[in-house]
Write a structure and sequence with these properties.
This protein has helices at about 25-40, 75-80, 80-85, 120-125, 130-140, 145-150, 160-170, 175-180, 185-195, 210-220, 230-245, 270-280, 285-295, 330-340, 385-395, 410-420, 470-480, and strands at about 15-25, 45, 60, 70, 95, 100-105, 110-115, 225, 245-250, 260-270, 300-305, 320-325, 350-355, 370-375, 405-410, 455. By secondary structure, the chain is α/β, with parallel strands linked by helices. The chain is globular and about 65 Å long.
């Protein structure tokens, strides 16, 4: 297993006092700590686990020599994030690997719709829908830097109003509505798979937004993975934090504010429920009540595989894609995304497959491979989804099951045990619909602030929400700095 840097494991846990203490070392906790340390503040990160990383950890989940990412593998939003763009993480051990094709969506006819690293190449794979795809994405990719910076920020007056107007015209719509501009099943299915990252029924408004943001990111810069496993991104962030004066301690759970040294501000990279539990009576009753009303969405059921060979996709192009969206046509994907919201398990789930060892040989022994897949299930579900997930892959890759050597399964309950912030298996930090996108975890002028003037929330349960981009931590740190 990849470990956190040795220099981050401290024999003496910490000093008596810090300007800022950050609880949790996920991407947002580390981003908050880095933001404050770069301003000259003394910062401590306290992590309950034995490695830093939160959702960026790697481990030998199946067999020795097979490196699996426990949660995140593909970092589409990291390379698009203004926070990460400022960090020289390549000087601290991070090496991005860009699969030739960011994402493929296989179809039943043996072909696949491809999300390529340019608008033209993507459009060329979509046949008759090449023109409407270009019409939608040419201006958005051209303005992509401004759009992604704005979309990944808290609610505010836009700094690039014309670019955001172009984005908003499509983004505020439902994925189903935007998909109607495409006539062929390839483009419609490709868009559906991207929109499924919203973890919402595709008929809901704003489900087009994540599809467009992910497509813009792919067609501008690609969807990279970290060589050696996602732990390497976490380790690079921890090393950089130490280089600018921050400190990290692992194996130190925090169960109350009294478990922390003295601080001017404390930031929590946790769920609102975990913050409520830890802070207890230090928070006003109205804040606890708001936390209880905060909504969590469907959970995930994930399988990691050690494979005796690459997945034998019918569509050869899928073998060049880092991510493969398995779900068939638009209507099938839409039905699969509705199911968990109705308390059902889709008979044919929408499955996100990632196959990193095709592009990073360090993750598996020579000639063998790693891959993982997950689908969405009802919140807190205990159902076994191994057969439905593997059947979906077998449908588009005959002989896949014969290549499975070992599997490792995580249910929603396993995810919550692994990380108490993944409540009910919700890895997105709470529902990201129009009611709860900019008011997470509650409606406040400064959403990172709590009822305690020196306690802040910096997790994905704050704007701009889920994904490895570090901006929840960055913006929370800026808010906290004003309270120092």
């Amino acid at each position: 297993m990849n470990q956190t840097p040795e220099s981050a494991i401290r024999a003496t846990p910490w000093r008596d006092a810090y300007d800022a203490v950050v609880v949790g070392s996920g991407p947002n906790g580390l981003a908050a700590a880095i933001t404050l340390a770069r301003q000259g503040h003394s910062v401590l990160v306290a992590e309950a686990g034995r490695t830093v990383g939160g959702g960026m950890r790697s481990a030998e989940l199946t067999e020795p020599g097979f490196v699996h990412d426990v949660c995140s593998t593909v970092f589409a939003l990291a390379v698009a994030s203004p926070f990460f763009r400022e960090l020289p993480l390549d000087d601290f051990g991070l090496d991005w690997v860009f699969p030739p094709i960011p994402c493929a969506h296989p179809l039943d006819n043996g072909r696949a719709a491809l999300l390529e690293s340019s608008v033209d190449r993507t459009a060329d794979s979509l046949g008759a829908d090449a023109r409407p795809w270009r019409r939608l994405f040419d201006p958005l990719v051209r303005d992509g830097g401004a759009i992604l910076d704005e979309a990944l920020s808290p609610l505010r007056a836009p700094r690039h109003p014309l670019a955001m107007l172009r984005f908003a015209r499509a983004a505020v719509r439902s994925a189903a509505g935007v998909a109607r501009r495409f006539k062929g099943e390839a483009a419609r299915s490709l868009f559906a798979g991207l929109a499924a990252h919203s973890v919402l029924p595709l008929e809901k408004i704003v489900t087009a937004a994540p599809a467009i943001a992910l497509a813009v990111a792919a067609q501008r810069s690609g969807w990279p993975i970290a060589r050696g496993g996602s732990q390497q991104l976490a380790n690079a962030m921890a090393r950089y934090l130490e280089s600018v004066g921050g400190e990290v301690v692992v194996n130190h759970p925090v169960n109350s504010l009294s478990d922390l040294p003295a601080y001017r501000v404390a930031l929590f990279d946790t769920s609102p429920k975990e913050l409520s539990r830890i802070a207890g009576g230090s928070l006003a009753p109205r804040y606890h009540r708001a936390v209880e009303r905060f909504r969590y969405g469907p959970g995930v059921f994930k399988i990691d595989w050690a494979l005796d060979g690459a997945i034998p996709w019918h569509a050869e192009a899928c073998c060049r894609a880092g991510t493969v969206h398995v779900g068939g046509a638009f209507d099938e994907v839409a039905a699969a995304m509705r199911a968990p919201w109705e308390g059902r398990h889709a008979r044919r789930p929408f499955v996100i497959v990632v196959q990193p060892s095709l592009f990073d040989p360090s993750r598996s022994p020579q000639g063998r491979h790693t891959a993982w897949a997950y689908c969405h299930v009802p919140h807190g579900s205990n159902d076994d989804m191994v057969e439905p997930i593997e059947s979906q892959i077998e449908r588009f890759a005959s002989g896949f099951r014969e290549r499975i050597s070992t599997r490792h399964v995580m249910t929603p309950a396993d995810f919550q045990r692994y990380n108490p912030n993944y409540i009910g298996g919700d890895i997105s930090g709470g529902v990201m619909d129009v009611r709860q996108l900019f008011t997470r975890p509650m409606a406040r002028i400064v959403p990172y602030a709590t009822s305690h003037p020196r306690v802040f929330l910096c997790s994905s349960s704050t704007p701009p929400g889920g994904g490895v981009h570090g901006l929840c931590g960055y913006y929370a740190a800026r808010a906290a700095e004003m309270a120092m």
